[in-house]
Amino acid sequence: MKTANQIKSDITNAFNRHISVPTGSLFQPIPKTLTAGKLYEAYILAILAQELTSKEGFDLVLSEGREIRLRSSPGPIDRRFPFIEVLNPLTIAIIAEIWTDIEFLTLSYVIRNSPKIEKGDYHELDIIMVDPEINDRPHFTNLWLGVECKNTPYKKSLLKEILGVRREMSLLAAPNATRFQVFPRSEVPANPPSCLIVYSSSSKVDGYTTPGEIFGIDFFYKPL
Amino acid sequence: MALTDDEYLDILRHLQERLREFAPDVFENLSEITVDLPPNPQTRLIRYLGFVIRTFKTRSSDTYPYILDLLNNNIKTKEGNSIESIKISFTPEEAQLYGIDEFDLVNLPDDSAFLDDLITILNSIQEDESDKS
Question: Chain A window 27-86: which residues touch B at a Cβ cutoff of 8 Å?
Answer without folding.
Answer: 27-36, 38-40, 42-43, 45-47, 49-50, 52-54, 59-73, 81, 84
